[in-house]
Amino acid sequence: MDRFQYKRENIPLNLTNSLNLLDEAKKVVPCASQTLSKGYTQWSVGAVPLFLESGKGCEVTDPDGNVFIDYGMGLGPFILGYSDDDVNLAIKKQLEKGTMFTLPNSLEVEASKAIIDSVPCAEMVRFGKNGSDATSAAVKLARAYTKKDLIIHCGYHGWQDWYITSTERDAGIPKVMKKLVLSLQYNDLEGLKTLISENKNKIAGLIMEPVGAIKPNCMRESNCSNAECNLMCQNNFLHEVRRITEKNNIVLIFDELFTGFRWSMGGASKYFNVIPDLACFGKALSNGMPVSCITGRREIMNMFETVFFSFSYGGETLSLAAIIATINKLKECNVHEHIENESTFLVNGINRLILEHKLEEYISIFGYPFKSVFKLSGNKDFNPLELKTLIQQECAKRGVLFIGYHLVSYSHKREHIEFTLQVYDEVFSLVRSAIKNNNLVELIEGTVVTQIFKNVGDRSIKD
User: Fold this and answer.
1) Cα distance between residue 337 and residue 309, in whole Å
2) Mean pLDDT within 197-203
3) Is 8 inside a domain boundary?
């Protein structure tokens, strides 16, 4: 934290290099980014950094030399922090031996065993390079195993045709694909029962994010007020989904790209004690190296003997070495306990500041210690995206990169959290004043950020 000078003055950042890079990127890179939510539509052009050059721990530096505390953490992968020394060492050692070979490498076995030891449903493992590889493979397995075609999805599952055809971002996909995927809202058990009833014996699998910021409902006659109910009882939404899918011969797939190795060593399935048939992992699995995996019941995983899932970089060794090093460190350093403690301190502080600045009507925060999300509201003078833009702008001036949610990592120490709360205190005070003076929009110095998906909530913070 020595690099941080807590800036109380309301002055714009020097963003010259970021803006020049954006102009160059637009000429050679479609969308000027490889990932939609990293692109300039999600960040206020002219007010916040648009590129990052380096990161260490939870601190990142932009091309103009500005330093920020980051809570997006690369959109989820860096559970230990950027450029973790132990993971880096494992990668460097393997780099000396080689990154790929003409035959499989022993790390494929070692990394698979490490995952099997951690994940409740894991009996076999296959590796991919990104989340869409794993989720698409899971869907193919479910169809091959059940000999049925329809897939129910609940949440966000990547860019490939089988899923993205169900959203408004469906350009380039044959319309016939829409007939093969059914959408389910989280916590909607009646909706699930209806889909199954209307498509009897046609549904191969249900793929779902087991949890996001919204908690699984308790299925008791009256919702339990016990804070641990969603975790401890055997009657929440996830347990009921498991019972329903088993009864109807539907393969249950947990998309744990976000929750895996973040909610617990065994992901959300371990956290909630619900065992799916298949599960997909990535992001925190390797602390930022490009690798994903699909795992699950041996009987279904063996379908890979006929289901084609093969590509040159599937066994790339640097990522496999990173998996082993990451899993070891997660266990040895009690990383999840650290994240829970620091994130709880952060969220409690934010809730206190919201009350102190009388912003309950406009700002709230919800979710879990492993991912807490801001909910922003507008009024007749401004909309939620304009409020988000102003908060992003003012946080950046003060040294915090605001993405709209918090993914606290092992590298976020108490001093980072306390610094962040100081920043939120100042920014919330400014927001309160802007609301009172009806001039919030006038204070925005850059472009207003946009929504990635129009149709719903938690998707807007995905890739």
Assistant:
1) 36
2) 96
3) no
